[in-house]
Amino acid sequence: MKTSAVKNVASRSQRSTMCRAYLWSFTIALVTFLPVLAGCGTSIASANQGVQQPPLSLSTAQPTLTPKPPVGVSVQGTRFYSEGHVVTLVGVNHSSLEYSCSGDGHFTATDFQAMRSWGMNVIRITLSSEFWANAGNACPDYRQTVIHAIDNARAAHLFVIVDLQWSAPFDTPADRTRGGVQCPMPDTGKDVAFWQNLAMLYHDDPGVLFDLYGEPFDISWSTWLKGGTISSGCYIIGGPSLQKELGTYRAIGMRALVAKVRALAPENVLILGGLEWGYDLSGILQGFALHGSNLVYDTHPFDYGSKQPADWPQAFGATAKQYAVIADEFGSYTCSTDYIARAIKYFQAHHISWLAWTWGPYSCSSPSLLAAWPSTPSVPYGSYIKQQMLQVSASGA
């Protein structure tokens, strides 16, 4: 759990793009437009076959998509591959869209080109299913904002990890303005609809990876896998420390969530975060692994007392020997480089891809990679991460 300023924080053809636009805009009136959609090819048929469409808010301005670069990523064994070659994903997290309806304004083409100048090849964008649902018409432009951010990142030849970070199973008026709360597991309502929508949008872009839930916590491995009733409430981020929004909801397990996404997006890489705020992957070797292609397990090492290097072999190192593992969040809250240097060395030894937290000029408590927009690194934290990414880029790993 991160308590910081931040947490207070290609389409294959123009025809395929047109099909997605028709599917998005006219889902409710599909029968009326069958003659138009009939010429769009097989992509719509495969997306709709045997699948109940998730709800789309009629009050939301429907987004449109632009063509994406076709280069994608897949998983073979314990490694990522792109265009037939092993690739190490290195990049950063860009937060704000989980807690701000419009984000921080730094999701432009210029911003993503600045990221490329650091040598990174991937960006993780943290999102809110509450904003996406646009309950009460509180955030009507969110979907288009997210899609424009992804478009800009892909145009800069970055892979994009879209991450469900904040949820809102209790649907309170406050959730609609703050983007929700941080819950132990995704729910069976808005969170499932969020992923079904995104799967329909990006099922033909293998350069978009789906991080199904950023930071599971305070649950058993059985609940992680199978789902269940969550009665412990959810954390309100940005309020008093450890304040909770109380209530009970039904969580979907990772097995069922993977199946629902796979029904619409058979090829995109799916990322599955472990327990203890996305850190602990030990249960994967104890009978809780999922079966299927293009699955990756995610760990979040930060310099807390319980996440020190001596614990890494048990928490995720052993798992990385048998399964693909990514650290799509990691960092240090001291502004020093000792912890992150040891982490990157460990990642390299175990073929673990990594993304540092977080892209923005905040404070050590974030921790923050920038001293100033658009790309001036903080010192020493950001400058060290930039150096390491440039080395990976130069090596062609």
Description:
- The protein has 397 residues and is of the alpha/beta class.
- It has a single domain, classed as Alpha-Beta Barrel (TIM Barrel).
- The chain has 14 helices and 17 strands.
- The protein has helices at residues 14-25, 34-37, 42-48, 109-116, 129-133, 142-155, 173-178, 190-202, 221-226, 254-262, 275-278, 312-320, 338-349, 381-395, and strands spanning 74-76, 79-82, 85-87, 90-94, 122-128, 159-166, 208-211, 227-230, 234-235, 244-245, 249-252, 270-273, 295-298, 325-327, 353-356, 370-372, 376-377.
- The strands form 5 sheets. Strands 4-5-6-7-12-13-14-15 form an 8-stranded parallel β-barrel, surrounded by 5 helices. Strands 1-2-3 form a 3-stranded antiparallel β-sheet, with no helix packed on it.
- Helix 8 (190-202) packs parallel to helix 10.
- It is globular.
- It starts with 13 loop residues before the first helix and ends with a helix.
- 51% of the residues are buried.
- The model is unreliable at 3-62 (pLDDT under 50).
